[in-house]
Specification:
The protein is an alpha/beta fold and 89 residues long. The chain has one domain (22-87). The chain has helices at residues 35-43, 65-77, and strands spanning 22-29, 48-56, 85-87. Strands 1-2-3 form a 3-stranded parallel beta sheet, sandwiched between helices. The radius of gyration is 16 Å and the shape is globular.
Length: 89
């Protein structure tokens, strides 16, 4: 890849201004996508809320009834959980 030309245009700033509510579901001990990454991503989007399963493994939706129920309520009913919601393992 070294000889390929690289564009030097700056990346746009992160974020999602004007976006509808965004639900970020995280797992505290996720070996593939650490929870801190989910929090940082959500922090860059004004309309995002984070819900974290305090378990281990990859993927909180489906692994935790608490997260699964919150995701279903968000997608089906438009109910937004409190930002920073923690779901027990």
């Amino acid at each position: 890849c070294g000889p390929w030309p690289v564009r030097t245009e700056p990346l746009p700033p992160p974020g999602a201004p004007g976006a509808p509510p965004i639900l970020v579901a995280a797992t505290a001990a996720d070996p593939s996508t650490p929870g801190v990454g989910s929090t940082r991503a959500a922090d860059q989007m004004p309309s995002a809320v984070t819900i974290t399963w305090q378990g281990a493994g990859h993927g909180a939706v489906g692994a935790s009834p608490c997260v699964t129920d919150a995701a279903r309520a968000f997608l089906v009913d438009g109910k937004i959980p409190a930002n920073g919601t923690l779901c027990p393992a």
